[in-house]
From TrEMBL:
This is Alanine--glyoxylate aminotransferase family protein. GO terms for molecular function: transaminase activity. Belongs to the class-V pyridoxal-phosphate-dependent aminotransferase family. The keyword Transferase applies. Its cofactor is pyridoxal 5'-phosphate. InterPro entries: Aminotrans_V_dom, PyrdxlP-dep_Trfase, PyrdxlP-dep_Trfase_major, PyrdxlP-dep_Trfase_small, SP_NH2Trfase/AEP_transaminase. Residues 43-348 form the Aminotransferase class V domain. Keywords: Aminotransferase, Pyridoxal phosphate, Transferase.
Length: 409
């Protein structure tokens, strides 16, 4: 092992379920020199970032900030800040990430109720209402796009149900934001968290979060400013202290707010990345970005079908940006994935839990939601399937993808 080998990652094309190849402008933004955390230029960037993510989330929520860490840092910050020990939390599970929300809620001390539907399907409003009436939860935690199954959970009706029954509504939209519609205010969400490494087109390591006034109010009731920076003007909240210091959204909001109360040291290079991702997507226009994801995703799906492959799950609820492909019985799925990587520099994904070894997951996200990356992936896969003895009409996948993509124009 040469410890001083020069860093030289191969030029991979990341076509898995995320992380994905980052927009070059985002990498350039991260290469900028640091500035101090209270430099007015830096606090100006922080304010801009808040405003940019209000647009990304489609919200007027003042409380729109970055949590430093990967997407699960955002999830954990929301859940540990909203949940008090003993609170009932309802978590519908339609893939791996529902299990994650349940596990983090449990660790935050919640009395968690889950209900699981078959992977490859989504939850209906009727199922949700039945469970809400039965369990009377304080919080509903619902994934929007679960990359483990590629399904996109409809959220339109859930917010109304939550309001009707006095339930706080949180969604993890890490995998789906800007690749599919998302409407924080219109869908009456109280909390949303995401990550950069999917359709937003950045690296993992920053988790944008937005909170409704009601959610902020709940967090304020648990206010606790740590010793050493606490002054006489800081009143502790009436309710229990948030169990994590790092993920205490009350303190994080005070750091991002007018008081600029010191908490963590902001991960400046990640803030540069998050800010650039938001700018890029908003400059392209959210509707255009979603449309580009849909066209690339549809073209990929058409090409995969032309290879004689079956697609996984209820396709009427598939995310635009990732597809599950049933691994045909005549190939070794892992060997094909390895060959895609080593021979073509293209990464596609494997799967988890009950789907492990059964499906590949191929993503068309962010910078890679393009026709050329779709065609490269299809041509490479076709070559490997033919080599494995598949009876495939050569060139048909290319043709189908190009035709499908052009229809979108
Ligand atoms: C829906 C969803 N939530 C959460 C995560 C976890 O993200 P991270 O690995 O950045 O913590 C992922 C990652 O794939 C995801 O797809």
């Amino acid at each position: 092992m040469d410890l001083f080998e020069r860093l030289s990652p191969p030029p991979r094309i990341l076509m898995g379920p995320g992380p994905i190849t980052v927009y070059p402008r985002v990498l350039q933004a991260m290469g900028n020199q640091l500035i101090g955390q209270y430099d007015p230029v830096m606090t100006g960037y922080m304010n801009q970032t808040m405003a940019l993510y209000r647009e990304i989330f489609k919200t007027n929520n003042d409380a729109t900030v970055l949590v430093d860490g990967t997407a699960r840092a955002g999830i954990e910050a929301v859940l540990v800040s909203l949940i008090e020990p003993g609170d009932k939390v309802l978590v519908p599970v339609f893939g791996r990430f529902g299990h994650l929300l349940a596990e983090i809620s449990e660790r935050a001390g919640a009395d968690v109720v889950t209900f699981e539907v078959e992977w490859g399907t989504v939850v209906t409003d009727a199922m949700l209402e039945k469970q809400i009436i039965r369990h009377k939860p304080k919080l509903l935690a619902l994934v929007q796009g679960d990359t483990s199954t590629t399904m996109l959970q409809p959220l339109e009706g859930a917010g109304e149900l939550c309001k009707k029954h006095g339930v706080l509504f949180y969604s993890d939209a890490t995998a789906s934001i800007v690749g599919n519609s998302f409407e924080t205010d219109k869908w009456q969400l109280d909390a949303v968290s995401v990550g950069l490494q999917k359709c937003l087109g950045g690296p993992s390591g920053s988790a944008p979060v937005t909170l409704s006034e009601q959610a902020v109010e709940r967090i304020r009731q648990r206010k606790h400013v740590e010793a050493g920076i606490r002054t006489d003007s800081h009143q502790a909240g009436q309710r229990s202290r948030i169990r994590s210091n790092y993920f205490d959204l009350g303190m994080i909001l005070d750091y991002w707010g007018e008081e600029r109360l010191n908490h963590h040291t902001e991960a400046t290079s990640m803030l540069f990345a998050a800010r650039e991702c938001a700018q890029l997507n908003l400059q392209e226009g959210l509707d255009n970005v979603i449309d580009r994801h849909k066209r690339a995703g549809d073209a990929l799906a058409a090409g995969l079908r032309a290879l004689g492959l079956s697609l996984f799950g209820d396709l009427s609820h598939k995310m635009n940006n990732v597809v599950g492909v049933v691994i045909p019985s005549y190939v070794d799925g892992e060997a094909v994935r390895q060959a895609m990587l080593t021979q073509f520099n293209i990464e596609i994904g494997t799967s988890f839990g009950p789907l492990h070894g059964k499906i590949w997951r191929i993503g068309t996200m962010g910078y890679n939601a393009r026709l050329d990356t779709v065609l490269l992936t299809l041509v490479a896969l076709e070559a490997l399937l033919v080599q494995s003895g598949g009876s495939i009409k050569q060139g048909a996948a290319y043709q189908a993808a190009v035709e499908r993509y052009d229809v979108g124009e």
